[in-house]
Amino acid sequence: MIRPLCKIAAVVAAGASAAFAQTPPANTALPVDSVAALSWLNGCWGGKVNQRDFREQWMPLRGNTMLGVGSVEFEGKLASYEYMRIEARPDGVFYVALPSGQKEAAFKLVSATRNEAESHTTFVFENPAHDFPQRILYRRGTEGWLYASIEGKTGGKDQQVTYPFRRIDCENGEFIRN
Q: Which of 68, 101, 103 is nearest to 83 (CA)?
């Protein structure tokens, strides 16, 4: 009686492991060798948190480069701005930022992953030698959402700032419903 139960258990276990092996991974790595993977950024993005109104505008991909500009407004005044580009170089794809009053800094695209379960794609750019941030993340969410995060260490402590953006009309700043 024990032998038939062992055989049944072995068949069930084999079937379960085969089904588990066929389950797709939650995260799928995407190629990180093309600026075109970020062409969805084209257009205007806006958000508001803690009385800060922030925007980014990205031009269409041209010459294997995307150009962008970002700004933060606080209490009706321009608090900061930044010129940005995403470009292909011989050693990879780079996010290059030139913030107001600072030197240009380049961050290499080190990973791009698609999470099917949560329906988002995350692009991670890194520059460990930079003061802050050392990482820039762009996460493309659903329904027109974009989450841009900067993170790293300042004064030996981990810091992270996330900017929740929605696609907006470039002229009037109104949210575009997808």
A: 68
